[in-house]
Amino acid sequence: MQNITILGCTGSIGTNTLDVVRQNRHRYGVFALAAGQNIELLCSQIQEFRPKVAVTASESGRSALADRLSASGLNRTDWPELLSGPEALVRIQ
Fold first, then answer.
1. Full-model pTM
2. SS in 3 state form for the chain?
3. Parallel, antiparallel or unpaired: strands 2-7 and 81-84
4. Cα 15 vs. chain centroid, distance in angstroms?
């Protein structure tokens, strides 16, 4: 299985890429997801694809994502590592 990182996972190219992953789960796994401001969609993607790392554009986005994940009922042990900012994007590539 090949693990991939998707930058811009909540945009049109990112969501289409995740559709391909969804249809080929035997071939692809998701290592990391990176998103800008669409925290609600990122949270849903985390619940479905269970990446190891999730990156938001800002620290406030990271905080909002943590709040959203808490509210979703996803067990804390199933959360990805939550990072933010440009340095985090470099780290996951």
1. 0.93
2. CEEEEEECCCCHHHHHHHHHHHHCCCCEEEEEEEECCCHHHHHHHHHHHCCCEEEECCHHHHHHHHHHHHHHCCCHHHCCEEEECHHHHHHHC
3. unpaired
4. 11
Encode pLDDT of 2-30 as tens digits: 999 999 999 999 999 999 999 999 999 99
Short-list 44, 30, 88, CA closest to 62: 88
Tokens for 31, please give them. Answer: 């290592």
**Which residue, chain included where needed, has tokens 């692809």?**
28
Query: Per residue in 23-79, pLDDT tens?
Result: 999 999 999 999 999 999 999 999 999 999 999 999 999 999 999 999 999 999 999
Structure tokens at 32: 């990391």
Residue tagged 């554009």 (tokens) = 57
